[in-house]
Amino acid sequence: MTAPGKRIVAAMSGGVDSSVAAGLLLEQGFEVVGVTLQLQACDESGGGRSCCGTDSIAQARAAAGRLGIHHYVIDCRQEFEKTVLLPSWEEYSRGRTPNPCVICNERVKFGMLFDHAVALGAYKLATGHYARVGMRKNGAPFLRRGADHRKDQSYFLFSIRPEALSGVVFPIGEFTKDAVRSLAQHLGLPNADRRESQDACFAAKETGYPEGLRRRLHKTTAPGPLVDEEGRLLGMHKGIHQFTVGQRRGLGVALGSPAWVKSIDPWIAAVVLTTREQALSARGLRASGVRWIGFVPRFRRLRCSIKVRYNQAPAPATVEPGEEATAKVWFDRPLRAVTPGQAVVFFHGDRVLGGGWIERSER
Amino acid sequence: MKHIYFDNNSTTRLHPDVLEEMLPYLRDTYGNASSIHWFGQEARRGMDRAREQVANLIGASSDEIVFTSGGTEADNQALIGIADAVGKPGSRIITTAVEHQAVMNSCRFLEKKGLSVTYLSVDSQGRIDLGTLADSIGDDVILISIMLANNEVGTVQPVREAAELAKSKGILFHTDAVQAVGRIPVDVRELGVDLLSLSGHKFHGPKGCGALFVRSGIPGPVLIHGGHHERRRRAGTENVAAIAGLGRACSIAAARLEDSSFFVGSLRDRLEKGITERVSGIKVNTCREHRLPNTLNVSFEGVDGQLLAMNLDLVGIAVSTGSACQSDTREPSYVLLAMGCSVGQATGCLRFSLSADNTGEEIDRVIDVLPDLVEGLRR
Q: Which of B7, B5, B4 is nearest to B353 (CA)?
């Protein structure tokens, strides 16, 4: 770590990870300024004490108070709605399954908050992500997986802008979750035993995320048919936003045997169900919005490992970069439920090479 | 880090003598002021003294003082209580577009209950036009409420003239004097007002305690119903310690009002001069002729006021961007918008509000650090 005494803005969600991140920097001698983003009004959350945004803010304030650092709450409600919630809804309404955390990291945490950190005179922005930043020989930074692979969050960070990557620190990236919890004890942080703050930004426990989003944004949806692979009508649904590829529960029809969502056709609002689990397998995918971290791809094919969703161990694959930031990806072994709208992220060992957005799967 | 406090319109430091005044009522003299025994009598004596002290500061008689939980409650009681006492469906209230939210949202509440409200516009200095006020008065008007001094920009309204106008038409007149009392001379008889709100923590008294002046002979507005406290004008067991503190704060303010007002005014002028000389692209938002001595509101072109306030806080200087009562939103100040400021000017502003606790050194420190911070944010 570089010269102490410098100012670092620490994003504090109220959870244990970001609180420990701030505490570690403070122990290293940095001037740490805590910042919490207010992403929604209390009455807009799904209800319940611990998922309310203002409760998280109070937790962050308490942690900052314990550490004895300045703490500010920045009202991002409008930006969050405009840059994260509305685009997420657009994806759902097109039959895709968005990844709001990736979008939020790109535009809000490492976009707007990064700019705020600079404006507060900080030389780095710190967050409580399980990820690491490496340095190439030419000094260019690159993203690395967190040391705790079970907690690794680099998947959510592939699209943050290059200047943000060189201005960010992930103080807990080298630690396991258990280590972070004991560090919290050691630092005397009040939220050491608190549950994870994951859904703090938009929780909708009762209705599920997409339906909660629809109500929050006052959007309407059209009903449509549930069909089998041969196109036979099985029933009707209330809106394609409530379905995602590979989904098994809450389909609204009973077929006598387990069934999954195979695909979604937004044009006729049709949800295609299958009773063959192998029908969910894909051999590859096409991606758009592909970006490479710190280098320009000059190869036609790249052997690497990939993730098509957060909760997946990296799997070996071949990536073929195409025109206009597209790519084709071929898996060594078929993968299940490759979902349009989710991110595909490319790894070489612990290094994150880049990633893109899944447009469709290739069978 | 040495902390400098320039946010006295939000709240002020409790005066040490005020704390001393309060402590006995929190320790030994804890009686209920309505009780017949010694404990109650002691509490009652403390309240009586405080009522006298408050009345003295504003030229009222003590039976015209109703203790409340603060300025906001006093404003609510004046507006909602009067509307309840003398209002009919279709009755109208006249107020201004730059009132504190306590008045503003009480008016919105009454609009929902079927009353109508006229919000007088203000000029670029934040002052209402008396001619417009005269024109908007009609038979349906039951109350005129015009603040004495604005919390964000410090502009002082022509309350005496407005109250005279109201009196000539037989209309009740309320003024929210929360930012004025204890800082400039305020005399209810001289102003000719029927109702006046004040708050202790704006002039070194405790938080959670204020008062409503209700001129004797007018229909008493009631907001909080219950027991016989405050001669049935405000129910609830009295916060005796805070009331005693408020009284003491009033007597301290009365004793040094002229001196401190002059001193604070000279500090403010020094600050204004320094900022004007050292920082380009600024605009001072106030009324030159009629203003509080302690308030300076400045817009910095091309700068987010909130970020500037945070940067100042990081070097130990506490200021705000406007009303603390709405600092949780990034909405531009409605007061500045009403004064004709652009959205940029209304979000790019800082409010420095001083007290006699501040020093010339502190002013110079701000003038030293501010230009670089502003330039940094403009880059």
A: B7
Q: What is the pLDDT of residue A151?
A: 94
Active site (annotated) includes residue A51: no
| Nearest chain B CA: its distance from A90 CA (Å) | 26
CA-to-CA separations, A209 to A40, A83, A196, A214, B150, in angstroms, rounded: 15, 17, 17, 9, 45
pTM for this entry: 0.89
Contact B6, B358 (CB under 8 A): yes
Mean pLDDT across B292-300: 97
Give the DSSP H or E segment for B233. Answer: none
Half-sphere exposure in the Cβ direction for A221 (13 Å, CA)? 28
B234 CB burial (10 A radius; 0-12, 13-18, 19+):
buried
Using CB atoms, pick whichever of A72, A75, A78 lies closest to residue B310. A72
Q: What is the mean pLDDT of residues B232-243?
A: 95
CA torsion, ordered A261, A263, A269, A275, to nearest 10 deg: -40
Mean pLDDT of all residues in B329-341: 89
Helix A86-93 to helix A209-216 angle, to the nearest 10 degrees?
A: 120
3-state secondary structure of B56: helix
Give per-residue pLDDT as tens, A199-231: 456 666 677 888 888 988 999 988 999 999 998
Higher pLDDT, A256 or B319: B319
B54-65 pLDDT, tens digit per residue, is 999 999 999 999
Residues of A in Cβ contact (< 8 Å) with B324: none
Angstroms from A58 CA to nearest CA on chain B: 14
Rounded CA separation B74/B198 (Å): 7
Please compute the mean of the pLDDT values over residues A37-58 and round it to a whole number: 63
A149 CB contacts (<8 Å, ≥6 apart)?
none
- B376–A120 C-beta distance less than 8 A: no
Phi, psi angles (nearest 5°) of residue A197: -95, 15
Numbered residues of chain A with Cβ closer than 8 Å to any chain B Cβ: 7, 33, 38, 70, 72-75, 78, 116, 119-121
**Mean of per-residue pLDDT scores for chain B:** 95
| pLDDT of res. A288 | 96
Other Cβ atoms less than 10 A from the Cβ of A26: the count is 19
pLDDT of amino acid A194: 61
Angle at B374 between CA B372 and CA B375, to 5 degrees: 65
Pair B265, B183: CB distance under 8 Å: no
ipTM of the complex in this document: 0.85
Q: How many CB pairs under 8 A join A and B?
A: 25
Q: What average pLDDT does this structure show over B213-223?
A: 93
Of A70, A73, A74, the CB nearest to B314: A70
Tell me how far apart the alpha carbons of residues B2 and A355 are, in angstroms, rounded to a whole number: 48
* Residues B299/B283, Cβ–Cβ less than 8 Å: yes
Best CA proximity match to B189, nearest among B99, B68, B57, B47: B57
**Active site members of B:** 325
Calpha distance A104→A111 (Å, rounded): 9
- Cβ contact A120–B313 (<8 Å): no
Contact by Cβ (8 Å): B69, B209: yes
% residues pLDDT > 70 (chain A) = 91
Helix (H, G, I), strand (E, B) or coil at B360: helix
What pLDDT does residue A46 have? 46
